[in-house]
Write a structure and sequence with these properties.
about 375 residues; alpha/beta; seven-stranded mixed sheet; two-stranded antiparallel sheet; 9 strands; about 15% strand
Amino acid sequence: MIKYLGSKRLLVPRIVARVDAIARTAERRGRPIATVLDPFSGTARVAHALKARGFRVHASDHNAYAATLAACYVQADRRRWLAEATRLIAELDALPGRAGWFTETFCVRARYLRPENGARVDAIRERIARLALDPELEAIALTSLMEAADRVDSTVGVQMAYLKRWAPRAHQPLTLRVPALLDGAGAASRLDAREAVERITADLVYLDPPYNQHSYLGNYHVWESLVRWDKPAVYGLAMKRVDVRERWSPFNRRGTIAAALGDVIARARARWLVVSFSDEGYLTPAAVRAMLAGRGRVRMAAIPHPRYVGAAIGIYNPRGEKVGTPGHRMNRECLFVVEVADGAPARRAAPRATTSARPARLALARAPR
């Protein structure tokens, strides 16, 4: 899976173990946990791990690239798609490069990938667009392409900037691989988190919201443009999509995050809530705990966790000169568990839509062009 700011890669075993423990408790009470909703799914790493544990997971994210990852890793059934995906990805991987918009924007005007790899991205993405694939198969192909580009990029893992000199991995040829699909049913959608928790009922809701000023759209705008393939106008040295200026999240602003998170918590339609939140966010662990207390009994575990690689590298100006010193290397990830008092939303919500609505789910999985 792609490099990601706030990735839960190191915490996945702890999160899955906590959900397993909740599931055992629920089973003993005769109210087993079968369905999980992840409305801030990001790379779908946690959702993928929970699907692997046998839960029926609905993963949702408002960014197109993240909804595509969810469609691949959560919605797509390996038994249905593996053979076809293997043939398709082999065909795409054999295409010669043909430079186009992606190469000019991200490899010439910027330096995220070397031009020869950018030309491969252009050729493969244009072929995917022309094939008019089933949305799940398209999501698998796009995930393969995103991950291939991620393996040969020249960044520290975010796309707010690129390295002044090519990273060693950037000289490797771009090569597609079949993503790690899982057997079984799941669901994916591209919804705002508030809309997701209003529309989708689950036994357990896992919340991992943004917690500070770092916008996921801004940090992963290259993947957003690659998936949407709308070839937007761009701005600045980073070649960001112009809509990065408009598509802001209330979770990325100090003045709006409390209301936004409190609203999602209040509207969640589940018997259990699991919330992951960093202690270096705009909200303190005590503030998050107070929000959750309105839904039921709260337990919390604080887990030491390394900060993102940028914390170790330090701060540089546009000329590549170091102008700051690295900050602290570790923070605490706070994992909250709430057994909801009555399982109902704390305020009136829109009529529910369950994860069985397959046609709507498929429509949401395809990013608009």
